[in-house]
């Protein structure tokens, strides 16, 4: 007898997550979705993560574990994606909280609307309540939609200036991801930026609900919120330079769609200003000069300038240019 494919594949990268895994699995079980496979990709954990995973195996019968050496979240997601069998895919982070009903709501939307991508809202939640909880997408900026094209949703989202490029608020139709051979860029931090941009440019049917199902937890143990040093700032600048090159290539691949979405160029200029701000925070002048030279030699400055279409953006960049230029001597 042929076993039917699960409705949802949940692909989870795990690296030293023992502090969060019980909470994560509690969230998964609370979804109460019978037709769900969970693919745990152990990305070289050295703590007790896998012992905790084993303790939950009986409560999640469609649980698979993939073991690999530590290669980062992108490779882990790609490993899980390669063996997923579900009609839809999701990629939650283990240190966040997703609320009961999230995946059923997204699956209902996806099945009813024959969607390529179904997406929802969430909240920023700070460790020890350091800041008040607030929506990721302000409801006054982004409201629930009917079924729209991916480019239409991307334009609306980017135009709000409040859009966050993330995979974990979404589910994706597996055949759509497979058809386009989408994958996550190995070794790249913030790889969700090019992933989300290209997925939405390619998607034909997308729907967003402003219901808040996901709590994005901002805590001191998160790599993205560790205190920076000059060396970590250099690494961050290089990651973002790669992201800008990828976004530029995506804009060229989808030129007919991007011409109607000026914000696809705006986001390159915006992230480029972020790179320049990274330089400002560096203390070692020799390291700063080195990475600024690299920034110009790789053509990143030209790319940012080309993508800055508004007079205001060009004015801001022009002011910064003269402060950077002195490091090129």
Distance between the termini: 72 Å
Major β-sheet annotation = 9 strands, mixed
* Backbone structural class: alpha/beta
- Spans with pLDDT under 50 lasting ≥5 residues? none
**H/I helix tally:** 13
- Extended strand count: 9
Shape, per Cα inertia axes: globular
What is the H/E string? Answer: EHEHEHEEHEEHEHHEHHHHHH
Q: Roughly what fraction of the amino acids lie in strands?
A: 15-25%
Which characteristics define this entry?
single chain; 329 residues; alpha/beta; nine-stranded mixed sheet; 13 helices
Describe this structure in words.
The chain is α/β, with parallel strands linked by helices. It is 46% helix and 17% strand. The chain contains 13 helices and nine strands. The protein has helices at 21-30, 49-55, 73-83, 102-113, 150-159, 174-180, 192-202, 230-253, 255-258, 263-280, 285-297, 300-307, 311-325; strands at residues 8-14, 36-43, 63-68, 88-90, 97-98, 117-126, 134-135, 170-173, 206-218. Strands 1, 2, 3, 4, 5, 6, 7, 8 and 9 form a nine-stranded mixed sheet that branches. Helix 1 (21-30) links the parallel strand 1 (8-14) and strand 2. Helix 10 crosses helix 12 (300-307). The longest helix is centred in the last third of the chain and has 24 residues, at 230-253. The protein is globular and about 65 Å long. The mean pLDDT is 94.
